[in-house]
# Entry
Amino acid sequence: MTRLTDTQSEPLRKKLNNTVVTVTGGAGFIGGHLVDALIDLGARITVIDDLSNSNASHISSQIEANPEQLRFIQGSILDPISLGAAVEGARYVFHLAALGSVPKSVEDPARTWVVNATGTMRVLTAAQKAGATRVIYSASSSAYGDNPALPKQETQAPEPESPYAAAKLAGESLCRSWATCYGIDTACLRYFNIFGPRQAADSAYAAVVPAFLNCYLNNQSPTIFGDGGQTRDFTHVTNAVYANLVAAINDAPMKGEVFNIGAGKQTSINQLAASLKNLLQIQGLDPVYQPERIGEVRDSVADISKGQSILGYQPVTTLEEGLKSTATWYRDQHQAAKSSQ
# Structure
């Protein structure tokens, strides 16, 4: 569960306590952690999720513990009836529902576009009709493409290199358009490689941190696509949650502005593999190298100064702290599963 310090929580609680909010994709990885934080802050939350990329187990346990604060609608953001019910009365709409895989988008670009671009338009339309104050959109650092300039700054021209990146970038344009034309404020958060507990580890499309941990814990060598020298800005999920919260409560109009949400630290895939192996105290199991995947960028690290100055965003969990706590969580889950067999 996402926990913030008292200093971080106090201004958030003043604005969010008893406030009605909606979280699209709230049964998913980042969405579920955001829901945890919103419950702690006293918000009244509606989650809409079609469970196509998640399951209801975590949300179910939260509903059982906090039935007065949380309701769940199983439905698609493409369904106007379900979506309209989900955003009714909401002041803030946190839009996280998406198909989140670059390789999957290459295989099925049409579905990626419909969910990530058309779905975002429908969320914006429903939120505006419901009288919401602001939509906080989960964008993606994949919009930058493979431009070699580092660190990535929001002023760089987008160069999306996958259907996923193109669809998420389209969502940003929609957010700016709706803020200009329809009077609903919007903010776009470009996430950089979010990781943490409860992230899916058993899929062919699993993100690299849970995929590596899953391999090591099952005594298997992890697969690295490419030479492993490619770099990412690995960002613990608590940082994405905090960014959503401060973007929601900020008094200044956002007008569709884009903000990088990362840790500001560049780490190679080879370095990541070595760090996780050390944390788990694994011997051997050297990575297996495969050809690089289409649509993947070479290097990425965020300049987070804009979010710091305008939103008050700061990383609340360092990479080292995040990797340690995440590795511990997956190890505990693995041991619990083995003992129950």
Observations:
- The chain has one domain: 6-196+236-263+296-316.
